[in-house]
């Protein structure tokens, strides 16, 4: 049960965003408003308001950052890319939920037939979706994309990409203190601050020790965050001047040690494979590998439905490495098979929300399935339309980056574009196992999308404008500082 501090933190976070936009240049203010909210705000705590999405640690920072940019600093945000394919994917993501809601108006009733008697006892009911749910679902889809749009417009320059990577490293260095404390003394940070543990304590014990969870959804999320920080530090080492390389390689080594202590086999394996690529591989090779990862992630449901994924061979290989992890992976695969059968009943637009996509006991209505991967959650909730829209929006910048890189000299590419592409693509791969899609993932996708538009010369030239005649004090102050400061 969240305590008063948890709700207070959510309530005052817009004021934190105001302070960040007053004190920092625009690019850093956007990044840290999103990143700090993701890292520090409480889990499983939200304000349930009528007819609007739940206000929680993901929606509040995104709305706050967008409000600061548009209403206080007077920046116009360009919502429509010039690419018709990208526009189609955006439309599918936002408006594809309309047929989902309209085709799921039927309630799902769970009932007991007593002793073969015609009398039925209703034990639980999942409500159908109504037209009044439509605005809430569509608004949630738009809010989810706000980091994408802000990053596309304000963070897709060379300096902006560096700021994105730098924030990951700085945030991970600070977060590592809390993570190491939890490794040593057990995961208690969320309980101490917000009054409850956000996940099962049993899943935080691994290898005779503890896995840190801090303020995130699961220990796997913490490990994946440190993986991205290792990759970010490696890319900054590669682009740094000789005098600065030593401190960046120290950051790489330190963060990699923290990643190992997080005890996540998948993230550790990703780190072993990708860190040398970021450090030494040619940029174009990194982009090609990122494209391969994205292709595998996008095509996975098709391959699963066609029976082309060698599940038994994967489990046998995993058992050789770690039998316990092979058992866990087998449990995931079994759940996926059952959820795929459920999703196949409404394969085009899905079952919608309220947990209607999950398997439940036929009499009690209790959930008996555990959806781990993001792909199966989206596929069951919004069908092929929602899946193609979401994965397409994430994959589109990688495909576009690969296409423009083929016509460019490697020296002309930003040294930060390829590492960000690898970071986005490995997130898509991990989404097959876990629901690791976060606001920062959408931010990285927006950065790469905007960078491609800049290289192509199709980036929109949006001039700032004031929405208030005199302009609020914070707007004048922040704009004045942004003109004077040089982004590092």
Structure commentary:
The chain is mostly helical and 488 residues long. The protein has a domain at 175-280. 64% of the residues lie in helices and 3% in strands. The protein has 18 helices and 4 strands. It has helices at residues 4-23, 26-40, 59-72, 84-95, 97-102, 131-154, 158-185, 189-194, 219-239, 245-261, 265-280, 283-305, 311-321, 323-344, 374-405, 417-430, 439-456, 473-484, and strands at 108-113, 120-126, 205-206, 209-210. Strands 1-2 form a two-stranded antiparallel sheet. A two-stranded antiparallel ribbon has the order 3-4. The longest helix is centred in the C-terminal third of the chain and has 32 residues, at 374-405. The chain is globular. The chain starts with a helix and ends with a helix. The model is unreliable at 464-488 (pLDDT under 50).
